[in-house]
Amino acid sequence: MPPPADIVKVAIEWPGANAQLIEMDQKRPLSSIIREVCDGWSLSGAEQFALRYADGPQLYITEQSRGDIKNGTILRLAISPARAARQLLERIQSHGIDARLEALKELAKLSADPTFATEFINMEGIGTLARLVESGTHFGEMLAFTLTAFLELMDHGIVSWDLISLSFIKQIAGYVNQPMVDVSILQRSLAILESMVLNSHSLYHRVAQEITVGQLIGHLSNQEIQTYAIALINALFLKAPEDRRQEEYTNPLEQHLTEMASTLAQKHLRSIILNHVIRGNRPIKAEMAHQLYVLQVLTFNLLEERMMTKMDPNDQTQRDIIFELRRIAFDGENDPTGTEKRKAMYTKDYKMLGFTNHVNPAMDFTQTPPGMLALDNMLYLAKVHQDTYIRIVLENSSREDKHECPFGRCAIELTRMLCEILQVGELPNEGCNDYHPMFFTHDRAWEEFFCVCIQLLNKTWKEMRATAEDFNKVMQVVREQITRALAMKPPSLDQLKNKLRGLNYSEILRLRQSERMSQDDFQSPPIIELRERIQPEILELIKQQRLNRLCEGSCFRKLGNRRRQEKFWFCRLSLNHKVLHYGDLDESPQGEVPFELLSDKIPVSDIKSVVTGKDCPHMKEKSALKQNKEVLELAFSVLYDPDETLNFVAPNKYEYCIWTDGLCALLGREMGSDLTRSDLDTLISMEMKLRLLDLENITIPEAPPPVPKEPSSYNFTYNYS
């Protein structure tokens, strides 16, 4: 007979004594259980003790968290959080160097525990640590442990960052600016400064006064701290106030960049990241990939102001840009002298340039997006790639067969499309690592990307022999060409050109036809019947593949306020499919994690359901900001008895589909992810093609000669009347 649901069997350890094996009644007060355990070892003052986990993070157990205790868990009797906080606070203020170092080392470990952190903070512990840092008397390991404890305590969100003093900020910034500082101290200092910038508007200004981008760029050559440095650069970039961001340049070719952007350009951030990070001798980890993605998004978001700025048809400076486009294309130095003749010729030229409004092309730039950004792109092409610009304009303006490609209209629509593809103006997504190395290979990557794509559009237009009526069709093909090429992650703009050359119109048609095979082909009744007969077999194969992947296990990241200090946990299914094993890890594993290292487990029989997205308990309190959208799409939770949850955020969409499908298969429910539908269609189509190919290859033997029939003993008389 199974034990009651409220009873869990645990082992409790105490140094120098035999472990106690008890049946813990979850209905009893925790203080009563601790008193009973203390009595078993003849320990007095039970109120000075508490229970902690013996493995993993070794967190304190409270009335709120005791429901997480499972059968077979090993616990440890320890001094209470309040007593531990008081003792450590006294020891870190002692005069003995060795005693203080050991106390700070233990504090750095305990500070991750929210129960202990609350007690330590209530005793003014953060102020004590801040004063130790401000004194400037701590160095080496002692300082590293002090900064670690400070960061962990602040990360709980119990104390506002606004309470941090200016002298503390100056001291932390000093560690970053010093040429010879221990790596561990640099890491924690950069992390603290990033948290200040992200969590306090007032502290942004103070940090920005102490730290320059140039000083941070100097740290990018050190592989141990480059992720922390880029994270701080991103934080400064993201939180820069509007009054510092807007700085117009008189030269229209120099777009409306932010002050931060011009600073980054001057310090050659892009080339240093390219050479020391992207092309470095170490593989790029998930956190670095995320920081590169964030930097890419923030850089492209500098285009948002121009994208959302309408052209003023009465602004002579803006109209001069259009005149310049006309002059470069048609060399209008010998303009007619008469006003009417000049106006008529301009109208003709604007028509040949491909503008929709031939009389006043400024009106073409009054829609946002893409607004003035489209005009900026056109001017960059005309000035920097003048031969290409003239060739595109003239070869289309000279055509008389209605197949001319309208350059102006195409450039405007292409700019809008590129803004959509690269999500210009959108905030970075929390879980996204989708950066493109090629955008770090050129100082004007956006403009160069446009120049490559406008040539692609012109080439595709000719391949399709398109007319004005086919404009939308051409743009659809070009969007597909660009998105397919970007998905290949070309490392440079030249490689992008090579990818696009291979994705000509004929290739797009071939790919489309190939991808439609599973949808449009095999629609005859016998083939449909064959498909229905094959489907259960294929579904079973997919189910086994999903379960096998769960048995291999996956690593998940714990999302917190400080992404760069990654915390991981691993989960995998037992080989007999009866238990989910999981546990915390210090770092991302390289391969499979043994079951012995995973201290927690959930019997599959206890799992009640699997929920996803906004139905997950850990997503219900998340804000609806754009940066949480992708996290929401990757979230799922396992609900199990009695009312417990195991919460996941998958590293990517593939792992999300694998795990949600696998868990559904484990519970005997339908696998409904997009990946399963895609795999099902692909595998069924492949199997059907193989079977049909076998039928086509069957050699039918020649029919044997007819056997003479014996005369029939029955005579039939047919009456045709």
UniProtKB/TrEMBL annotation:
Key words, A-Z: Apoptosis, Cytoplasm, Membrane, Phagocytosis, Phosphoprotein, SH3-binding
Gene3D superfamilies: 6.10.250.810, Leucine-rich Repeat Variant, Pleckstrin-homology domain (PH domain)/Phosphotyrosine-binding domain (PTB)
Major subcellular location class: cytoplasm
Pfam families referenced in this protein's UniProt entry, alphabetically: ELMO_ARM, ELMO_CED12, PH_12
Domain of life: Eukaryota
Residue ranges annotated for the ELMO domain, each copy included: 317-486
Coiled-coil region list: none
Localisation: Cytoplasm; Membrane
GO cellular component, one term: cytoplasm
Any GO BP annotation: actin filament organization
PROSITE patterns on file: ELMO
Any one GO MF annotation of this record: SH3 domain binding
Entry-linked InterPro entries: ARM-like (IPR011989), ARM-type_fold (IPR016024), ELMO_ARM (IPR024574), ELMO_dom (IPR006816), ELMO_domain-containing (IPR050868), PH-like_dom_sf (IPR011993), PH_domain (IPR001849)
Biological role stated in the UniProt entry: Involved in cytoskeletal rearrangements required for phagocytosis of apoptotic cells and cell motility. Acts in association with DOCK1 and CRK. Was initially proposed to be required in complex with DOCK1 to activate Rac Rho small GTPases. May enhance the guanine nucleotide exchange factor (GEF) activity of DOCK1.
Protein name: Engulfment and cell motility 2
Organism: Labrus bergylta
